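Researcher: I'd like a structural prediction for the single chain below. Treat it as a standalone chain; there are no partners to consider.
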Amino acid sequence: MNRKRLSEPYVVHDLISDDPFGDNFPPTDRYYLDVGLRPEWAGQIMKYVQRDEIVVPPDHYFVMGDNRDRSWDSRYWGFVDRDAIMGRPMLIYWSVDATAEDYTDRSLPATLRGMGQTVLHLPNQTRWHRMLREVH
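Model: Treating it as a single chain, here is the predicted structure.
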């Protein structure tokens, strides 16, 4: 709404993932509507695209997954009505320190190695100061 680009240096893109909306959202033509959108959203999305931007209607939210390259989120199923939101986050129950490099190799050996490293280094990588903190 404020038309300011959000700086997100923490974002890690999965180069292996085939996300049709990775660099093409919102869609600029109907070609992109056949990429797994829910049919009802595919029929509506273009009326919300203005000057290459998606315009979220009042009392609705555009919801993004935290793993954007593999998220089934508002890009694919549409807006969330305000009345469908039943609460807010209350507590950070666990937080781990990780870098972009921890998520770049998605091969099976790297995934297994990463799981082993997580278990082995869990006490050192847990951000204890954030645990069980209230979300404001």
